[in-house]
User: What shape does this take?
Amino acid sequence: GAVVSQHPSRVICKSGTSVKIECRSLDFQATTMFWYRQFPKKSLMLMATSNEGSKATYEQGVEKDKFLINHASLTLSTLTVTSAHPEDSSFYICSARTNPGQGASPRNQPQHFGDGTRLSIL
Amino acid sequence: AQKITQTQPGMFVQEKEAVTLDCTYDTSDPSYGLFWYKQPSSGEMIFLIYQGSYDQQNATEGRYSLNFQKARKSANLVISASQLGDSAMYFCAMREGPQTGANNLFFGTGTRLTVIP
Assistant: This one.
């Protein structure tokens, strides 16, 4: 079964609204979560890395005021797309991992991905 | 330079045949991990197989095997006995540094595999 839950799976909203995407690790403590963005028929591009209890580290070119990331607990990270515009339309996917010493990583995989969120801004 | 290169944008394979998806990587870190993920049209990323840089043997997981050639820095995925359900995008990815670190994955551009009945 899934070990990372991402919600919502799809969202359509008007330009100018803010959208929050949640990423939850279901049965392990995710000390680190990653947020990726994927354009149609393109690869996954890392947006930011978030560690529980600290500020996220954003990749070059990613606006941190635009894409707010909160990792307040060991099982939940959120990505908020603020004042969304049509160019923010994309597929967003999170992944979560634990570090040795924090408990075994499920199925010995270093990262577990959510099912993604397809965001469409009208 | 690209850390992961997948030179095949698309591949076709006859059902029940084997297919090899190419992946080359670039890193100067002696410790790294290589991954293959499958992404069906629904979008989720499905982990297929993992190869550590210090692993002596090629990884295998059911119908998937990884042809790891360290000197050539290649990590090709071999899918045997292709099934219609194998049609999807396939991404090669690499983690630099030891697994104990919280390092992100670098992804290739992907290969779209189509299995023909």
Remarks:
- The radius of gyration of chain B is 14 Å.
